[in-house]
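Tutorial sheet, problem 5. The two components below are modelled jointly, 977 residues in total.
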Amino acid sequence: MQQGNTLEKLPLSGDKLKVALVAARQSLGNIILGKNSEIALALACLLARGHLLIEDLPGLGKTILAQSLARVLGLSFQRIQFTSDLLPADIVGVSIFRQESGEFEFQRGPIFAELVLADEVNRATPKAQSALLEAMEERQVSVDGQTHSLPSPYFVVATQNPSDQIGTFPLPESQLDRFLMRLELGYPNEENERALLTGTDRRQLLAEVGPVLNPEVLAALQDAVAKVHMTDPLIDYIQALVRFTRESPDIETGLSPRGALALVAAARAHAYVESHSGVFPDDVQAVFASVAGHRLKPASSSAYRTPAELSRYVLDNVHIP
Amino acid sequence: MSKRIGTDGSLLHSLPWTLGALAFSVVPHLQFLPIWVTAIFLACSAWRWQVERKRWRLPPTWIRIVLSLLCFIGVLASYESVSGVGPGSALLAVMAALKLLETKERRDQFVLLFISIFLIMSSLLREQYLWSLPYLMSGVLFTMTAWLRMADARKMSVVQSLRTGGRLMAYSVPLMIAMWIFFPRIATPFWAVPIDTSGATSGLSDQMSPGDISSLSLSDAVAFRVNFPGAIPPPQQRYWRGLVLHRFNGRTWTGNDPSFDTRARDDVDYLGESVKYQITMEPTRQHWILALDMPSEWDRNQRIFMASQQQLARMQPVDQRITYSVTSHPSYRLNNQLSRFSSDYYTQLPGNSNPQSVELAREMRASADSSETYINQVLRKFHQEEYFYTLQPPPLGNDPVDRFLFDTRQGFCEHYASAFAVLMRAAGIPARVVLGYQGGEINPMGRYLIVRQADAHAWNEVWLPERGWFRVDPTAAVAPQRIDEGRSGAMFDGIGASWGLDAPSEFLYQITMTWDALNTKWNEWILAYGPDNQSKFMEWLGMDDPDWQKMMLTLVALVILLILIISVLLIMRYRPPPKDEIARLYRKFTVAAGVDPAIGETPLSYFARLTKEIPELAGAADDITSLYLDARYGPSEMASVKALQSAVTGFARQRH
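Model answer (structure tokens):
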């Protein structure tokens, strides 16, 4: 479309990148109504080169969000529906014997897309889950002794349904740690729901939306994110938050150094998405629940049960320097 | 991959400071040290700097060991000793230079800075000029700054470091003064450092051979300064008696080493009024003490005594600047009686030297009706015949008095004094030569007299029955202005010329005089603060019977008190670091707004809540919030503390 075409001609200066990012955000906002902060978080997650876990009830737009992200960011897209009989080979691919050539040929699985939607990831067996998660971490797969690199950029958006408990295999904490952010979408408000009901079908809308970014611009954006300024007081703040999660009696396991790094990376990306001059405490707070929520384990005696409650409790008890 | 890796260049920003501090501290020593020490120091500094800049490797251990050994041997060879100020400072300077070659990290640089502090202080063992104080203070300041540049991990600007260094030094000034006043001075210090005696001596020579040297250099170095509480005597009376030469071998006049003579003072009848004054004498490394002709009383504290021939001398040589007071009587009568033996002694001349002069003297004496007439005739001869006063007389060779009197007829005081004494002795009149200074220049800034080396003079004393020994200055007969005006005119011609000026410059004269007056005050008030002045001062402060234990206790108590005061001042002065100025402004804003931010409430959420509660503040609060966020969390080039300050101040004023 028009925006995509103009972008290709423009040099990738800081201002152009910002313009592209704003356009991408707008496109996404047109498809997913009333979820501005979630869109900002999802974009921030991808700009920080992180993988995204969307956890919510069915029908709240998880799949649509993943699809529109792929579309708007101009990435190739594959969807893997996780089921209890899914095998690792279904994800990664298999080597097939070709009679005409007399050789094995590797048939790439759906994981070889730039953006992979792993739907209902908790329905598959741990074996299938770990095939995906290992690929996410290593950004490459090994089949029959051969290593195949995954494309770059490479994102995994996984969804899981928290209400189904029977016949599911919830991701263990160590696996959850692979996801930079865990998002909950929640119900739309009245106004947005009405627009949703009366407006064009979302899938049709999605088909009409063209890519706003391309992999090159995305890479430039990711580089720019890593350079977002972070002052001493802000690092003090992040350290104070991390220390609090480790010392609070309400939290059994606090944030690890990797968790703290994730917080820094996500806050940087969020500051970039929000066009802040540096990382503000608001950026840290905005990403805190998504980044820290699935990494914190409440103490059994704690009154704060959900990740959202726990995150709120931490943020409300740490002074901002 | 190379096995040994060069320097990483991490000292690039701090090394110049270390080198500078070292240079600062070594420079006062260099003029006293052998030239190769300077060379080693410069070479090592340059080498180390290149190593850092070009990422070279530091020299291996064996090279450093060999260099150290060589330098040690070099110091031994230059001084034949390793103790004392000279070899000690040479070793220190050389080792500091070599230490540079193994300086790898910050810790090594700290060691170097310690060494430079030590070197700075040790230069006081050599001399304590007025300019030493500001120079050494700036040396210490520079070293402190270097220290701060190195120690402070935060990026401080040079000016900030300098200011901090200056502040630290300012804190130490009261301690310094307290220590200076109260640290017990002991007459013979047990920490005495062997004084460097290898340097050139200046002052009077203890013999005189006119004609051997063919020119007299006019040194404007100060010989001594004199303070007169009363009127300053006129130039004609300013004869500063030094030593007496009485043995003549036809060429050279010599005297005796000073020895205590109990009768010396009793031989003088003091007449007329006395003059009291105080002399501050520059070190000469000799025993002679100068005083106005004729001293009657002198400072016993300085262990001054009167030797035979009424020469003043001191038990120890004058190897430090000393101050002593003397009372003199310009008119006096000396040795009314002269024994037959003495009379013979003072008329002795070597057998066959200067025959023409001896002949001339006998002829002139025969034609004169009295000794006094004869003396006047000789003086008149110098005055009326073609005798010239010059500082560049031709050399005289054998029988110098004959050559001078009959051929060259050019000379300065020594020539005339020598010739006059020979003419007297040949005529049977006891005569001797006195060396000392004549004249001196009044410093209008300080109302004291400066006597310089250029004022050195030689005159005669002759003995006549009834009159005793009395002073005759034959030079005055040749060049009266030499006596009336002193030599200052000539001297300032010299100064002017060296500055490229033809005539003595009034301005230069003013500067020289002011500088000398300052120096005198420095000597008087700072350097003269020795055991006597200290105990006087202690008594004045109300300390009974001051001894070193009492002073030491006072000092310790004072130091503790001062440190307490300074600590309290420092605690009171403490300001949180500047970044918090931004936080302080934001607090001021929230206080003025009247809504307290909650714990963990971000500036943006606080802004949202504030505008909900007090909507009319939205505009100003929006500005302040975004200025605050940029200043505190944005990159430093976006921080505009001033804008935030004016916005917050305006906001606070409006809310009041």
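Marking note: The two ends of chain B are 70 Å apart (CA to CA). Full credit if you identified this.
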